[in-house]
Amino acid sequence: MAIISVRDLVVEYDGRRVLDGLNLDIKQGEVMVLLGGSGSGKSTLLRQILGLARPRSGSISIKGTDITRCSQAELNKTRRAMGVAFQGGALFNSLSVKENVALNLREHTRLAPSIIDLMVWTKLSVVGLAQFGDLYPQELSGGMKKRAAVARALALDPEILVLDEPSAGLDPIVAGELDELILFLKDALQITALVVTHELPSAFRIADRIAMLFDGKLLAVGTKEEIQASQDPNVKIFLNRTAENPVHAPAMAAYLEQYVQNQGAKS
Amino acid sequence: MANILEITGKRTLNYLEYLGSLNVQLWATLRAMRAALPLVGNRHRWRAAVHQMLDIGVNALPMVALLAMCSGFILAMQGASELRRFGALRFVVDLVAVGFTREMGPLLTAIAVSGRSGSAFAAEIGTMTVTEEIDALKVMAFEPVEFVLAPKYLAAMVAVPCLTIVSNFFGILAGGLFMLFSTHLALPLYFHYVMSSIQLRDLAMGMLKSLAFATIVAQVGCLEGFRVHGGGDAVGRSATTAVVRSTFLVIVADAVFTTIFYFIGKV
Predict the structure, then answer these.
(1) What is the mean pLDDT of residues A161-170?
(2) Hey, which of A168, B155, B203, B260 has its CA 20 to 30 A from B163?
(3) Contact yes or no for A190/A3 (Cβ under 8 A)
(4) Looking at the complex, does the CB of residue A50 fall below 8 Å from at least one CB of chain B?
């Protein structure tokens, strides 16, 4: 049974079709990596799954609730089963790291403050930030911010963890640590994870299955091996990192030469 | 010709759309206000509201007081130079007292608050929009209007009338100092004249105006913040737009109110 299932999703911005009849199923307990270049529509798909935007047509059901048609109250209920770590962390700047993690617990549960403190400490320890709880987001490094965002996403023990570009803007070592963290969470908490990324090494390290997005359509969905064995030219282009529109050096030189000659003829 | 019509139509529609979204936001805020109230609401929102009250009100006190003193002096001196020719210097008292309670106090305060806090609201919420903090609030099942806007609006509704009273006092005090130095009118006597020249109605009108101005400044500031698209430069622009638009709307509203009160007063 799929925990998230996207059916015939169509999204348009100003008449431009960004997602075109997309179908995707994410199973309970798997790490699904959404891979795609810039402009492939992966951020748009993510916003749809989080219920931040409404599609033109199609449906998205999360744990059996169709979030494109349900009421705000039902949407909020569904959202409590999801933890989201945004690309830049999106930590609240006016709150310390501890308070950021505690926010959800403090407002959505009736737990005693001492229990909340303990839970916050646990979550921060999981991401290795236990001794940094009193710092403010602006005092953290990029990698720490992302880890703090993961801790906040884990606050309510969600069934689904959504990570937007966890390794973007990080050096390879920190990015690698974050990958290990995701694998650890999957093993320890049997969490379902949806990870959006364009980093190939990270994707192949953590994924159970990969969904490859190109131009608003899914090119391929499958395990790492299936993706690597794919014969689709666009998948190959992405995996081999060949440029789609390479700069044609001879043509450029010819153009320049002609330009110089024209200028010479004028003077 | 068609082009001019087209532009005019487009601009008009844009303004109507803006006023419409301002209205929608105002109603949404009023619905969410309960959460920000003390005792019956959420204590975290109330705490945020108190913080905002201190920032909008207490921190603006010196500036508003000085502004009111200067304007009081200006009003008294300009009035005196004309009234002296008729030997009616005593009416400077009425001019300053009635002018401040009905008009200058609320208007000056609104403009000062719009410059200090309206722009700050826009910048704060704009930054939250750009850094995906608003999206993070939504996916954490918080209502941004309730979480961010309601405390600010409540704070403005409390702090602006208080500031208006302070501004009235200092404006009238400046008029008294002018009378003391120019005609040796003792301050206690001056305040006695002031009390006999203003009525409760004048004060009530001023307070009503200041509530309306607080609404405009807070709502315009927050709306500009929520409408930010793009990066850091858009945040800066939103702060400027917030000040320009709220000042403009405050003066228009002032004209409307004054007209209404004028005709009510005549009957």
Answers:
(1) 85
(2) B260
(3) no
(4) yes
